[in-house]
Each structure stands twice: as C-alpha cells, then as structure tokens.
User: Fold these one by one.
Assistant:
Number 1:
Amino acid sequence: MNEKKGAEGSLAGVDMAPIGRSETLGQQVRTQLASAIMAGRFKPGQKLTIRAVAAALDVSLTPAREALYNLAAEGILEMRSNGSVYLPTLTSERIVELTKIRTALEALAAREAALRITDEDIAHISRINDLMVAANERKDYASVMELNWEFHFAIYRASGMSELVRMIEKRWMMNSSYLNVIYPSFGQMDQGINNHHTMVRALHSRDPERLASAVVIDINFAADTLLDMIEAQGTERRQKAQR
Amino acid sequence: MNEKKGAEGSLAGVDMAPIGRSETLGQQVRTQLASAIMAGRFKPGQKLTIRAVAAALDVSLTPAREALYNLAAEGILEMRSNGSVYLPTLTSERIVELTKIRTALEALAAREAALRITDEDIAHISRINDLMVAANERKDYASVMELNWEFHFAIYRASGMSELVRMIEKRWMMNSSYLNVIYPSFGQMDQGINNHHTMVRALHSRDPERLASAVVIDINFAADTLLDMIEAQGTERRQKAQR
DNA sequence: ATTTGATATTTGTTATAACAAATTGAGGGT
DNA sequence: ACCCTCAATTTGTTATAACAAATATCAAAT
C-alpha cells in the first residue's frame, strides 16, 4: 500500500544501497562457524560446546547458542539428545542416502539451468573451469576445491531456483568436514576435469539431459572416492585396534 | 566397547526403557508451533513475535526465540532482516519452484519405497487409503487431509531414507499455512482418490516408475488447485482495492 | 588393578534486565 | 487532507546469573 502512491517527499526512486546495517552477533557467529566448517577446519565428530564457541569469538552464550542451534536445525551440525552439538560423522549408509538426494536435487537444478542460462553465464563458467584446470595442473588442490564449488554453483544458480540452490548448498556443507579426509591423496582429479568439459559442452548446446547426466556422474564419482576413503580409514582403525 | 564385555555388575539384558527425559522448553515450544502451523491455524504472512509466543505459552523469551529461529533456519518460517518472523507467503513463482523440488524428492522416495516396502506396510497403507475414501464420502475434509498426510508419509518412510523423509516433511509444512485457503471449496478430491488407487496398485506390483509417476501427478494436481486458489484470491483482492 | 562412590567441574537451560532499533500514534503545521 | 516531528511503545538483541543435568576426577575399598 505504500510503494506505488505519489509520495513526492519520500525517497522512492533514489534507490540507495541499504545502510550496512551490521549483522547481529548471532549471524556473525553463524557465518564464522559456517566458513570454518566449509574450510574443513573441524574434524568429523568433533564436539562444539556453547561456551567454547562463545569464548573463541568473545561473545556471550546467547548468540553462540543461537548460531550452533541454527546450524543444527539446518542439519549442518548434529545435535544429540543432551543438547551438545557435534560435527556430523558420515557412515557409509548416510553417504549413500545423501548422494541419492544430491543426485535428485542437482540434476533438477542442472536441467533448469540448461534451459535458462545466458551466454554471459556460460562464458563465466567456462572461465572458472579454465582456472580450475590450471590450478589442478600446478597441484594447488585448495584452489581446485574452491573453484569446483564456484563452477557447480554458478550452474545451479542459473536455474533461477533460489530455494533449491540453498538446499544444495546445505548438502555440500554436510560433506565438507570430510574435505581434509579426502584431501591428501586426491590423486586423479582428471576424470572430474574431463567431466567438467562435458558439462561446458552441454551448456553450450543447452542440452538438459546431457548436463544432468554429467552432473550425476560427477556426484557419483566424488561419492565413490569418499566412500573408498571412509572404508580405508575404517579398516585401518580396525587394524590398529587389533594390535 | 561397553556392550559386549562380561560386565556381570552391569544391567545388560535387563533392557529397560530409557527414562522419559523431559524435553527442553525450547523443544516443546517448537513442537507446539509446528503443530499449529501444520493444522493451518496461522494465516499466511502473519507475524509471530517472540514476546507473543512467549506469553502465549508462558515461557521466557529465550526458549520462544530459540523455537522461532529454529523453524526459520529450517525454512518453515520466514525471517526478515529486522529479525521478525512471519508465516511465509507463497507467490506463484515460489509455488512453482517448491512443486518442482517436491517432485524430485518425492519421486525419489517413491522409487526407493517401491523396491523396499514390505507386505505389512502395503496392507497398512491400503487401510489408511480406505479410511480416507470413507472420510471423503462423508465430507470430513479435516480427516481427509490428515489421512492424506499419513498415506503419503507411510510410503515415503518405507524408502528407509530418513533424511529424505525429513526434507519432504519440511516442504509439506511450508504449504500447510495455506490449508485453510484451499480448504473450503475443496470440491473434487475424486481425482486425488483415484490416483491413490493407482499408487496402491503400483505398490503391490513393486513398480518404481508407476509409483513415482502417480506421486508426481498427485503433487502437480494439488499444486494446480492451490495455484488456482491463489490466483482467484489475488484478482479478488485486486478488484476490492479498485472499488 | 578395577571398581565404586563422592566430589568437583563442565555444560546446557532458562529467566531476567538493560539496551537499541523499529514501529506506532498523536499533535501541529502546511 | 497530507506531511512532518517527537514522544511512547513495541520488539529484537545480548549479557548475566542461577539452576540442573551431565561429565570428569580422584580417593578409598575390594
């Protein structure tokens, strides 16, 4: 009721950037925690106590609690019955389920993106891919990971489905505490790189099914290597326990 | 390490139910709010202030805030930049997006369920469907809604993918504040009923694709009627504003 | 050495108070 | 009627204190 009317005195049309209204402490804590999680700085299964977070970021319990419980509500962190919050541990069964979900969501995003994507977006994505290939050749795997993220989400964002993109982001974050598990012996990205080329070609030809199937292959490849790692780690631990 | 060993003094084998450790106030508030939302007792766009919730349930601000922000973090409620929490309002575009997401998720759940479901589950689901048909014949639409919920989730739960079921639940809750919008003139459920029969048959023959496609039809039918309602309401309001 | 029990410490939960920002309402001027 | 201004109220934010439950520590007993 108040956006269309005359209102000469109002500032309608001036269109200033909304003032940098500083985020609340709770949101800032959330951001800090989220980026630490995405960077893989916590170990799987690690406990995050309210007071530890509060002390580390020098805030009171209230915002620390809010941030932790928000992340838990989103399923990025895991809350046990006693109220403590942990980094989730991924069992093989859970990885299998998460992978199926990711397949469904990301295939949908890919199909929609193929229909809606603009030429500029394709150029941008192609550029990201080139950077990623370069980073891979100089074995800068940290950059590879980051560019891989950008590559995929640039595509997904082109779907125009913001809610869907948010959902996919969450699923990626659920895996990310395992980045340093998968990190060291991340030998042959080559197959992944190859797949990215297929995706770029599918974008150019605006072929939804081709793009979707390449995405699915990408997801399953990543999941398989992660499953192998987990498996290997499990037997290793089992052997160590037997000694 | 503590379940197999001798441990004569332990209570292994007695197998008592863990004591009913009462939920925290925050969780109780969350439950109350969630069931009120699912029952459609709030209007779309309605504002839920922390203090109003706290007063209504006679708790302090802390648990009320926690519950509201949890629901917001899950996307069931909508948080605006000033921190206030609202029931989400569904635009047509948002409904279209949500419907596509639901299609992807629920088709996946249906396919997995068709492969894993037991005979007892099928019998149970068939029974629920009979009750729903009966409720529809006596025009008890409140029961129809509830039984419809049970019918669908009994199937989805048979997929064995608990995370996926949780995700689907959330998306159903996002629509539910529009139940009383869709409620009054909910004339022909008949097509939906017919579709349910198809689903039961597909379960008996364990046919993933048949089941999935029936689920998709069900989702799209519900979405179309909701879209019509929203559309009708929109023009009505527009006409009223012109007078 | 292992187990038990008591004690100390940590940790989650919740109410309250104080503050700041946003919203509302009334009154006065154009 | 409309717009502005200023005060009053509402509302979100955060720190703190007090409590309870869970966990860890340690000494004594078997």
Number 2:
Amino acid sequence: MIISDNLKMYVQKLRSSNLRPTKQRLKICQFLFDRKKTFHFTVETLNKKINKNGAIKISLATIYNTVEAFTSAGYLKEILTSKNKSYYDTNIKSHHHFYDEGSKELTDIHYSQIKLSKVPVPPKGKKIKNLEVVIRIQK
Amino acid sequence: MIISDNLKMYVQKLRSSNLRPTKQRLKICQFLFDRKKTFHFTVETLNKKINKNGAIKISLATIYNTVEAFTSAGYLKEILTSKNKSYYDTNIKSHHHFYDEGSKELTDIHYSQIKLSKVPVPPKGKKIKNLEVVIRIQK
DNA sequence: TTTCTAGTTTAGAATTATTATAAACTATAT
DNA sequence: ATATAGTTTATAATAATTCTAAACTAGAAA
C-alpha cells in the first residue's frame, strides 16, 4: 500500500502549516497519504491501525490532536453524516458521497459525476465555500 | 405558535405506525408539528423546551426514544452534519441546506432552488432513496 | 368494568466519543 | 549547549447517547 518514502515532502508540508514535523505526525502522514487511493476513517479506526504493529506507540490524544490539526491545515476533510462520530476523508478535492443505509458505508462519487444546473444565491454577506451532495442508497 | 388542536390527527398518525398514543408522545407531537414553519432541533434543545413549563415532565430517555421512533416512522429526518450530535428536521420533504461555518447554523433550501442535470447511477442492486445537497457558506 | 399483558416511561447507570489537564518530552532557534 | 515554545502523553473530565430493570399504562379480552 505504501508507495515510497515521501518523508521530506511531509516535513515541508507540515512546516508550511506551522506544524513541527514530529515523528508521530510523520508516521500519521505516511499512514494517511502514502497511498494510491484516498479513503475514509474515524479516529477509532485510525488509532487501531496506527498502533497495530508500529515501532512507536502514538497516544489516542495525539491521534485526536493530529487529525484536528490536519483538518484545519486542509490535509483532511470532515465528512457530513447523520451519526454521532466524526468521519474524515483523505480526499480533500470537491466530491460527493453515496451513503448506504444498510451497511452504513460511504463511497466517493467523483465531482464530474454530478452536475448542478441551478444553485441558490447564498444569504447576504456570505459566500459559497463548497457544495456537497450525499445520495442515500438502499436495497 | 400552536395552530390548533390536532390531537385526533396525531392519535391516528401514531396508531398507523404502531405507536401507542401516550400523553408523552402526543405532547411531543404537538410541540413539533403544531406549527406553520418547520424547524431544526437537537434532543438537548427539545428536552429543554418541552420541559420548560409543561404540566407533565417527560424524561430525557423518553425524548430520545420518541425522537428515534418518530424518525423511523418518517415523521422526522436526521440532518447531515460534521458534528458529534444529532440534528433533526421537522421538514421531511426532500430539501437541501446551507451550513454556515461561522455560526454553525443550518438553513433550509427549498427543493426547487437546486436542480441537478447529472446524477450517477447507484451501485448494482441499490436504489437511490434520496439526495441531499449541503452548501457550506462563510463570510 | 375489571383484569391482564405487552408496550411505554422513568431514573439512574453504563457506554462511547471527545476534550481538557498538567507533567514530561522534544524540535529548533539562539 | 541551552532555553523555550510546541508537542506528546496518561489520565481525568465532559458530553451525547444507550442500556437496564422496575413502575406504569393503553387497550384487548373476559
């Protein structure tokens, strides 16, 4: 799954966001971004996978801090759901989701797969930041 | 705010969903549906308002149970958010939302205000149940 | 009308997700 | 090398929700 050693790139990326390139953050970067495909996760699943067989153990608090920092920095995107748990996406490009009500799984929909021909004017003084479509599916 | 005594209607509505018309459920029905305009709420706010000055006190557990039952029965709709708290909407018609990142408030967008000219085919064996658009806005 | 029973409500305990705390540690500027 | 601000950590605290089991009640049946 891991593509190559992009460590130097992550060091720069973190520095550019005023985040010190600690070994914990770098390990999480590698886990999240050294991949061909983007994916969805929760803090719970990230924590389990990161700490499964790693040399260094990263505390849960750090996982929370890092996910929050990466989201603020724009490396991750929080997903809209109707659950009481945060879901994150390593795909930060504008895109949409299928939400399967049976399996409760989210699948990406490429932004080119959906086209809008009419969009409302935002309230006065506000700008549209982005637009997401969630399509609920079931059997 | 309360339009009229729709009690009989609610009794029928509840019976048709195999929910006994208890005084707690009827009181919650009146609070939620005896209105001209639909609105958004959380269990926390519903609990506060329901128990502010009522004759009967409804326990928090019952508020949870009832909101869950009403959602399953299709009287309420859960809103998509990126928070760790459930938001509900008394507007169950297909519609969309503005999500203000500053104030963290949701506003309804009428269905007719958004038109899609391209929608993806759902995965094999699945049907589209509904489609929601969330437009994130900011200053 | 009374009785019975399954469905409902309730207070409080338990669980789950997240955030706060404060002490120990570390990256990096000087 | 040293100082220090930023970071990590274990643990406690908080918040939202679900569970539990006893008490209560709507409505069917006698």
